[in-house]
Specification:
Blueprint: H1 3-26, H2 36-45, E1 51-53, E2 57-59, H3 61-84, H4 94-113, H5 119-137, E3 144-146, E4 152-154, H6 162-184, H7 186-194, H8 198-222, H9 230-261
Antiparallel strand pairs: 1-2, 3-4
Length: 277
């Protein structure tokens, strides 16, 4: 790049920054119907922003998000299994490499942490990891629904709802307990029950991480002065980081505890006492 081109590029960047700063300070703040405290509280508890489920019951937006994410994953998995996998080649293409890398990552995670029993573990962490990753990225799509009050609502990530986070945390705990039951029967179950705080810690780790990104985004969008370009950077950055980190953390913790409770310890052979003649 020549010196003249560099000067032009920097001039464009500087001009854009000046325009954004002028817009930030000149655009007046519009009055909100609710305070920032109420906005952030509703983002957590969903006391007002509810959606009617087939006209039967009012539910949190996170439940609708969970239904949509689950349906998307199942349809995608069916299409790949029926139309794509039978056409896999010895020399893989880009999509085949991506699928094999994803499957291989979770398979290695399962076999390295639970070498004896890992078929169920590998399948579960692959499914849970896909759900967390896709569910976290789902909020970037910005799917709109109409709430019970007639106001438009943007569907959040399923796991930013405490109920969704608790569900996947408890389900992971049950999978760990099942692995201990199959491998070591009652001892495995008792060993799992000793870590009774595990589902709570996993659930709140997911919920807290995703909720922090949601609250930061709500805070940025609330103030007009911060709503130029910054929400895009904050939203995408938080979402991508949380999608990768939380997928890895939950699958890693599940694999570690599953391998610990399903480990088969060899029985100690009793030594025969020599009889003195």
């Amino acid at each position: 790049m020549s010196k003249k081109q560099k000067i032009i590029s920097w001039s464009i960047y500087l001009g854009l920054i000046i325009i954004l700063l002028v817009a930030v300070f000149l655009v007046p703040q519009r009055e909100r119907a609710e305070s920032i405290q109420d906005t952030m509280k509703d983002a957590v508890l969903h006391e007002h922003g509810k959606i009617s489920l087939f006209g039967l019951i009012d539910v949190n937006p996170g439940l609708i998000s969970a239904f949509i994410v689950t349906l998307v994953i199942l349809i995608f998995a069916a299409i790949v299994r029926i139309f794509v996998i039978p056409k896999f080649k010895y020399v893989p293409g880009k999509f085949q490499i991506a699928i094999e890398q994803a499957v291989g990552f979770f398979d290695n995670l399962a076999t390295s942490n639970s070498p004896h029993r890992n078929k169920l573990l590998g399948a579960y962490i692959f499914g849970a990891g896909a759900y967390i990753f896709v569910g976290t990225l789902f909020e970037l799509v910005g799917v709109q629904f109409v709430g019970v009050n007639g106001e438009p609502l943007t569907l959040p990530a399923p796991l930013s709802d405490i109920n969704g986070a608790l569900t996947i945390g408890c389900f992971s705990y049950l999978v760990i307990m099942f692995g201990g039951l199959v491998a070591n029967k009652g001892k495995g179950v008792l060993k799992t029950l000793k870590d009774f705080s595990l589902p709570i810690s996993m659930s709140f780790r997911l919920f807290g991480a995703l909720l922090s990104g949601l609250l930061v985004s709500e805070l940025v969008y609330y103030y007009v002065a911060l709503s130029f370009v910054l929400p895009v950077i904050v939203g995408v950055l938080f979402t991508l980081i949380h999608a990768l980190v939380q997928t890895y953390v939950l699958t890693m913790l599940t694999s570690l505890f599953y391998g610990e409770v399903s480990e088969i310890k060899p029985k100690k052979k009793k030594e025969k006492k020599k009889v003195l003649s």
